[in-house]
């Protein structure tokens, strides 16, 4: 392996696939940077463009991480739990859901930060099911 293929191979891509993905990120970051520069000079323009770009890129990265973690988890642990019976498989599925929720948590934090959702709205389903925090 050489310096051109080592990293792409480690993330499951060919050199050309990796180049396309990296250029896609670079293009988005350049446009987001340009929007931030325009916003710095003219505050009424591009008010959310840079932050939306960051959120969109973060979601792409986290989706990829989620896929990698869940694939690895299934490849390494699912067969072991399957041999232990239905109760163990149920616990494994709960564990998978927990891991997925933990990996998704940053998406919620970003939504809260960007103002797209409020903490109260986020907690409504939980409060409806459990009555916890309801007034």
What does this 3D model show about the protein?
The protein contains 5 helices and no strands. It is flat. The protein folds into 2 domains: 1-47; 53-135. The model has no long low-confidence stretch (mean pLDDT 77). With 135 residues, the protein is mainly α. Helix 2 packs antiparallel against helix 3 and helix 3 (49-82) packs antiparallel against helix 4.
User: Which ranges are low-confidence, i.e. pLDDT below 50, for 5 or more consecutive residues?
Assistant: none
Q: Biggest β-sheet, characterized?
A: none
Specify the number of helices: 5
How confident overall, as mean pLDDT?
77
Rg from Cα: 21 Å
Number of strands: 0
How far apart are the termini?
62 Å
Element pattern in H and E: HHHHH
Q: State the share of residues found in helices, binned by percent.
A: over 70%
- Derived from helix and strand composition plus strand pairing, the structural class reads mainly alpha
Give the amount of beta strand, in percent.
under 5%
Number of domains: 2
**What shape does the CA trace take?**
flat
């Amino acid at each position: 392996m050489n310096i051109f293929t080592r990293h792409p191979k480690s993330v499951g891509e060919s050199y050309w696939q990796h180049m396309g993905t990296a250029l896609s990120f670079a293009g988005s970051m350049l446009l987001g940077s340009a929007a931030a520069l325009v916003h710095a000079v003219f505050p009424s323009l591009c008010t959310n463009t840079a932050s939306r770009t960051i959120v969109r890129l973060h979601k792409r990265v986290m989706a990829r991480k989620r896929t990698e973690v869940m694939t690895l988890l299934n490849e390494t642990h699912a067969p072991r739990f399957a041999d232990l019976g239905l109760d163990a498989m149920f616990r494994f599925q709960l564990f998978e859901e927990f891991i997925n929720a933990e990996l998704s948590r940053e998406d919620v934090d970003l939504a809260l930060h960007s103002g797209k959702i409020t903490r109260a709205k986020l907690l409504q389903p939980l409060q409806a099911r459990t009555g916890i925090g309801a007034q």
